[in-house]
Amino acid sequence: MNIGEAAKASGVSAKMIRYYESTGLIPAAGRTGSGYRVYSDTEVQMLRFIRRSRDLGFPVEKIEELLALWRDRSRQSSDVKRLAQEQITGLERKISEMQAMMETLQQLADECCGDHRPDCPILADLGNGPSPASRAEIEKKTGLSRSGRLADARPRQHQPVD
């Protein structure tokens, strides 16, 4: 199938397919005599794998690792689980960061009168940056230090599902 058909079948845009080829994430497609890309069912399945991995928030570097494990029939599932648990930890951190941002913005919006006067605590905060007290509160809520690293970087233990 051509790139348009592969894009439709996989849910990955033609532009992204070309990008994945250029970076080596997927092998270069075969070509017709006139130079058009041709994709097999196996390559479309690989594109679906990439699409699903991206939907779950995996960065391209981790998708490369997942693809290698997917192709390796002698892999250990513990390697795959480790990557998934690392992704879960990263998502938890992002959720925590976004929750703290939302709470801060909500507090600023609550402090703003939203009337005809020019005084606005939202703009004042954006212009001055967070106070040391609010920075400490954000770090406390998210578990992040100033460097953006988790204060407790140990992964959470998840209970197995039967």
UniProtKB/TrEMBL annotation:
Matching InterPro entries: CueR, DNA-bd_dom_put_sf, MerR-type_HTH_dom, MerR_fam, Tscrpt_reg_MerR_DNA-bd
Renumbered residue ranges of the record's region Disordered: 124-162
Residues of the HTH merR-type domain: 1-69
Subcellular location: Cytoplasm
Residues in coiled coil: 81-111
Superkingdom to which the source organism belongs: Bacteria
Biased composition (Basic and acidic residues): 149-162
Keyword Cytoplasm: yes
Alphabetical GO biological process terms: positive regulation of DNA-templated transcription
Keywords: Coiled coil, Cytoplasm, DNA-binding, Plasmid, Transcription, Transcription regulation
GO molecular function ontology, one term from the record: copper ion binding
One GO CC term on file: cytoplasm
SMART domains hit by this protein: HTH_MERR
Alphabetical list of NCBIfam families matching this protein: CueR
Protein's name according to its UniProt entry: Cu(I)-responsive transcriptional regulator
